[in-house]
Amino acid sequence: MSHKENRSNSLLGLKDKIQYLSDKCSLQWLGYVFTPVPTPLFKRLFWLATITACCACSAVVLRGALALYTTDAVSYSVETDYLEWDTPFPALTMCEEANPTWIKKYLAQNSLPATLATFSQEVSFRSVKFCRSCVSCEMGKTCVQNFLELVNGIRRKCDELLTDCWWDGKPFPCCERFHPIATEFGTCFVFNSRWTGDEAIINRHTGLPSLEFSATQSINIWIHSPDDMITIASENILGFCGTLHRITDFEVTLKAEQTISDVSVQLLSPSNRDCLFAHERPEFANLWPFARYSYSACIMYSRAFVQAEVCNCTHHFMPQIGNIPKCDFDGLVCLHKAKKEDLSTEQYQCPMACEEVIYTDIHVACPRQSSNVPEELLHRGTRGRMSLASHPSLRVRRQAIRELLGLVAVVLRGALALYTTEAVSYSVETDYLEWDTPFPALTVCEEANPTWIKKYLAQFHPITTEFGTCFVFNSRWTGDEAIININRHTGLPSLVFSATQSINIWIHSPDDMITIASENILGFCGTLHRITDFEVTLKAEQTISDVSVQLLSPSNRDCLFAHERPEFADLWPFARYSYSACIMYSRAFVQAEVCNCTHHFMPQIGNIPKCDFDGLVCLHKAKKEDLSTEQYQCPMACEEVIYTDIHVACPRQSSNVPEELLRRGTRGRMSLASHPSLRVRRQAIRELLGLVVDVGGVIGVFFGASLLSFLEVIYILFIRRYT
């Protein structure tokens, strides 16, 4: 058989296979193009062109899915639905500062040579170096073999460091909540650490509690997440205020930045998500000694393990790692002589934690009194106060974009997720050049003499609050014409005011009104006594909503626009919606349900009367749970601005006040630190076309129908008859 005949037979065989495939295969479009039945050329070309176009479109879609599957497995989204968030209160670790005077006194009391002072300090209080004096010392005179007895005797106990403590203004025995914890600095004492079984959670129901403490000795402090432990490598956000010498007034105000992980992230392997959950362990940590995982614990483990590799022991302040012994005197000499690169932990890559909270200080002060100290302060010692400036209004969620089901799951998951999860997503914008930002509103209340307020604050407009008639600057509740917007063309203006009487002030969004439940970001500086120099610098965090969000129902987007009303508010008295207005309405409505009247400071709700004397008695006698507004769930506003203070000061002059200041009174100044460079946009991820796409996907998967099926019907009914 010739080569030409073989080639002809091969082509005929291929043709037969294609025709057989077109007749038997469930892919109907093959039959339209390759059927052996006599078929008009137009029909074959029509379906060939249609199929080619569909292949091109599907290639574009699948290429995106393939890219999603072959790149990062985790994405990050921003959330601003903050009303029900729980935030861990920061942990505070306190370690004793080395005191050479006390060390010499201890040696004298125990009939030990004074020449041990340097050695005793180096083994009792860890520094960057391990033990400099161990290298060249005279045993029994300037150093000893059994140094742990010195350490245990020199280090003070909790009740020798702390005297008085307060949580949320209520006193408590310090050592009941400051628990001992092992650190690289020795045994320290920590408040609110998960490593000691504590966890104080705050939210918008608990308010903003603060921790206060008094210490009679010089101490070192670290503020950190409850999941972290302190190591030599730990960053101290307090800077030089991390060391509090005796008789120091310490105050810090913090901001919390929280990252949480979606349930889907746990389905990924640790190598794909690049983080570990609390119940997981690093791959290299075969002797992991801790009950949970955190990045700082991994760093401490790595440092201890490297010490064991170099010197066959770990520093006596390190945690117990398996059966590895603690270093004796010779071990300390080995650690001190080891080169820096020998003790490097670069070969151990510690993953970050999948869920964490980072705290940054927005105000910290630690003035020390070192001369002419009153007897009262000598007895009191150092006084410290730690608090959060405000509840978080933004957090980051880690989500899985690639799961174990692989590429097929990536293609099919989208349709299912859209209708089983939220309809709104959040994105971050940074094109800030043309943004307009509302200047914050300032509400001033003075109960004793409202006539004086009207006289001296004529530029402030009266507004109804739960504190009575107050006066507000730059509020939408007194007319949109009063709103001041700032941008990069207007610069950064400031508001300066003087008051000759004591006043209470709130700084808030122009959309908000003040209620009893309102959080005052100024803390104790919210009350300005006479002759106070008040100054606050603010940061604005803005959330806006895309036009597509308005197409969603309020129940799907979980927020309301200014022109909308809550479902339960049949007697809504206000011209616009805001979360704070909804809270005030709820509080007034509950009062009416219990006592058939509302407090005389409340806004008018329909025809509900204001309380007379008997009504006030009824409100006072009502139980707290009777006046609870939990049954009324107020949605957040779809567009809002939240202000946080990054610097606030309110020093008061109460003695030897010059005549000029007596005439001037209190002076206040409010400004923004900078224009915002980041804002959050709320967007709809479930649109009207979504249902059509999802239904089409389900029909295609389970019934084999597609766009081609509909085109086939159109062809048979309308085109075939003419061809």
TrEMBL record:
<keyword id="KW-0472">Membrane</keyword>
<keyword id="KW-0739">Sodium transport</keyword>
<comment type="similarity">
    <text>Belongs to the amiloride-sensitive sodium channel (TC 1.A.6) family.</text>
</comment>
<feature type="transmembrane region" description="Helical">
    <location>
        <begin position="688"/>
        <end position="718"/>
    </location>
</feature>
<keyword id="KW-0812">Transmembrane</keyword>
<dbReference type="GO" id="GO:0005886">
    <property type="term" value="C:plasma membrane"/>
</dbReference>
<keyword id="KW-0894">Sodium channel</keyword>
<dbReference type="Pfam" id="PF00858">
    <property type="entry name" value="ASC"/>
</dbReference>
<keyword id="KW-0813">Transport</keyword>
<keyword id="KW-0406">Ion transport</keyword>
<feature type="transmembrane region" description="Helical">
    <location>
        <begin position="45"/>
        <end position="69"/>
    </location>
</feature>
<keyword id="KW-0915">Sodium</keyword>
<dbReference type="GO" id="GO:0015280">
    <property type="term" value="F:ligand-gated sodium channel activity"/>
</dbReference>
<protein>
    <submittedName>
        <fullName>Uncharacterized protein</fullName>
    </submittedName>
</protein>
<keyword id="KW-1133">Transmembrane helix</keyword>
<dbReference type="InterPro" id="IPR001873">
    <property type="entry name" value="ENaC"/>
</dbReference>
<keyword id="KW-0407">Ion channel</keyword>
